[in-house]
Amino acid sequence: MGRTTQRECGTTGRRGPDKERPAAWSAYGKLVRLFRERAGLTQQALAEAIDYSLEQVASVEQGRRPAKAAFTEAAERVLEAGGALRVLQEDVDRAKLPLFFQDFASLEAEAVSRFSYDPMLVPGLLQTEAYARALLEAHFPPLEEEAIEQHLTARLARQSLLTRKSPCVVFSFILEEGTLYRTVGGRAVLEEQLARLRDCSRMRNVEIQVMPTQRAAHSGVNGQFVLLETVERRQFVSIEAQGVVNIRSDRNEVSEFCLQYGMLRSQALNTEESARFIEHLAGEL
């Protein structure tokens, strides 16, 4: 479409080595230490009380390892933190995401609507754990096992947006037919993934449409994009390719993508046809 790809308001990100410790992990760890010392507990005593190892507690306090939700709930109870740790859990989880994706994830967390076109893969919000893991394990250069687990946990945590009640988020997903044939992780993983799509399509706030391959040319052939509208009614478009995320907020640019998305919805199979197509494909595996 010839659109500019220059940085706008600091929202272009590139994949990096993700070696720096996220500030959210360090802040969380300092709070754990503060509450632990106020409670008169050693690291060993806290570890025993919440059924974690001494090394795990020390790593969390030093910001070297992110706390999982189970750790937070146990620490809240034992340390009587009054919700101070729980309120940071979302930031801790988001910091597990690749650096290039974190700006988008922050905006996504504020969304009241999210419309996306995905030509290559099932989008992260709809992925099963096995499908997501297979993609992360296929990354090159290879990711360390700890990084895979962190990114996987964060990706699955994002899926809570699908069922968030206040405010409820309206979703529209348009998937290229080819994404449903790509055997990421093998046939069993794909079968589970198709079942996941079928289940999500039954949610009242989620619409899934399939773009048939036989429609050789359409308005989305230039690639993936996501349209977001936040609680404050601010609108954004995000384009990701090869680990580079570009987020735009210019009204004219966003409007052009909105028009493009409207055309895509009219060109794809409708939701009922798409559900039948996914069901039929799952039956063939």
Protein model, in words:
The protein has 285 residues and is an alpha/beta fold. The chain is built from eleven helices and seven strands. It has a seven-stranded mixed sheet with strand order 1-7-6-5-2-3-4, sandwiched between helices. Strand 3, helix 9 and strand 4 form a beta-alpha-beta unit. The protein starts with 11 loop residues before the first strand and ends with a helix. The chain is 45% helix and 15% strand.
What's a quick, concise take on this entry?
The chain is 45% helix and 15% strand. By secondary structure, it is α/β, with parallel strands linked by helices. It has two domains: 23-93, lambda repressor-like DNA-binding domains (434 Repressor (Amino-terminal Domain), Orthogonal Bundle), CATH 1.10.260; 98-284, 2-Layer Sandwich (Endonuclease, Chain A).
Going by CATH, what is the homologous superfamily of the largest domain? Endonuclease Chain A
Relative helix content = 40-55%
Strand segment count: 7
CATH architecture of the largest domain: 2-Layer Sandwich
What is the strand content? 5-15%
Rg calc: 21 Å
Structural class: alpha/beta
CATH topology of the largest domain: Endonuclease, Chain A
Sheet bearing the most strands, described?
7 strands, mixed
